[in-house]
Backbone:
């Protein structure tokens, strides 16, 4: 089974300028993504797609295929599906694509290999999406507001329930989107039918879209690194 690890890294970002080049633990976010892919045993090709020559130049010393993405596929409103389709035209055929977003850096190569193993063990599986369990942040604690600030529960059940009595819910943490190419091209989405979850530790949840997110990731990083080094990951 040929597997492509694809790293999307646009040059533009409103929340944090040059976001993908920000440092975490002395490495840029794109380097973290590349190292995760390159450290996995089950990845056949690692590629980066970007509209930014600066980003591509930053990573050219790594063993990575570099794809210069057209500007019209790299706007704020651009669909990542189009960027993936463009990358596939440049790279050729792979049975499975794994998208590694630089903005979700707290993940390991071992976890990536475990996700690929899920496809190897289930031929009918079309996608594996990484998630984390959410406890305090739960739909039963969420509301929509009318113009007069009247509160409407998002769900019909659980508003007054204890946390431990609520059914568990899971949040896509952005670390891994793995999908069979055939299903992706057919359905034009990473969230295809017949998908399973890869459950990760919520303690390492870090989606970097704002300066606050980056500060929180910096606080988590050393403990994350130490735990995974001690576990031989």
Residues:
């Amino acid at each position: 089974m040929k597997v492509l690890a694809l790293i999307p890294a646009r040059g533009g970002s409103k929340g944090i300028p040059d976001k993908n080049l920000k440092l975490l633990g002395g490495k840029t976010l794109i380097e973290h993504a590349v190292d995760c892919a390159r450290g996995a045993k089950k990845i056949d090709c690692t590629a980066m797609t970007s509209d930014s020559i600066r980003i591509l130049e930053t990573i050219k010393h790594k063993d990575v295929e570099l794809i210069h993405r057209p500007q019209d596929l790299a706007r704020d409103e651009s669909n990542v599906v189009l960027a993936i389709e463009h990358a596939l035209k440049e790279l050729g055929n792979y049975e499975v694509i794994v998208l590694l977003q630089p903005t979700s850096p707290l993940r390991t190569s071992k976890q990536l290999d475990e996700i690929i193993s899920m496809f190897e063990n289930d031929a009918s599986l079309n996608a594996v999406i990484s998630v984390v369990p959410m406890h305090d942040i739960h739909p039963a604690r969420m509301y929509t507001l009318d113009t007069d600030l009247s509160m409407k529960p998002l769900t019909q059940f659980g508003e007054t329930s204890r946390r431990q009595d609520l059914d568990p819910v899971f949040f896509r943490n952005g670390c891994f989107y793995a999908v069979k190419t055939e299903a992706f091209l057919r359905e034009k989405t990473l969230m295809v039918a017949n998908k399973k979850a890869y459950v990760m530790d919520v303690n390492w949840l870090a989606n970097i879209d704002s300066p606050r997110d980056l500060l929180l990731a910096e606080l988590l990083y050393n403990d994350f690194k130490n735990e995974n080094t001690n576990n031989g990951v």
